[in-house]
Design a protein that fits this description.
By secondary structure, this protein is an alpha+beta fold. It is built from three helices and four strands.
Length: 113
């Protein structure tokens, strides 16, 4: 599987409206393509260089699904986002092929390893 991460810095005055847009429109549009199983929207903490930074993470159903999304859907969805937000939101994308995922077993203590 592939974790598709989009990190976006949004102007402070637009941050609340951007989150609403993402939750009401953009993320549902991405998920409606059928190529992702879920998403996460995170606020990135740390040294901000102006604005508010977010990470939107989508877990692709497969490598093939992600490639199809990139080819058939991403350009139009990215263009729609750019047309709406312009210079108020700028970002970059990271593709993270998944090595492992899961939950610790009961009694697991990482300090023991």
């Amino acid at each position: 599987m592939v974790l598709y991460n989009v990190t976006v810095s949004v102007s402070e005055e637009s941050a609340n409206d951007w989150v609403k847009y993402m939750m009401d429109e953009h993320i549902p549009d991405v998920l409606a393509t059928g190529h992702f199983r879920d998403f996460r929207l995170c606020n990135v903490q740390g040294d901000a260089q102006g604005g508010v930074t977010f990470a939107v993470q989508y877990m692709a159903r497969s490598v093939e699904a992600f490639k199809t999304y990139q080819k058939d859907h991403a350009p139009a969805l990215q263009a729609k986002h750019q047309a709406k937000w312009g210079s108020k939101a700028s970002g970059f994308r990271t593709v993270l092929p998944l090595i492992a995922e899961g939950h610790p077993t009961p009694g697991f203590d990482p300090k023991d390893n």
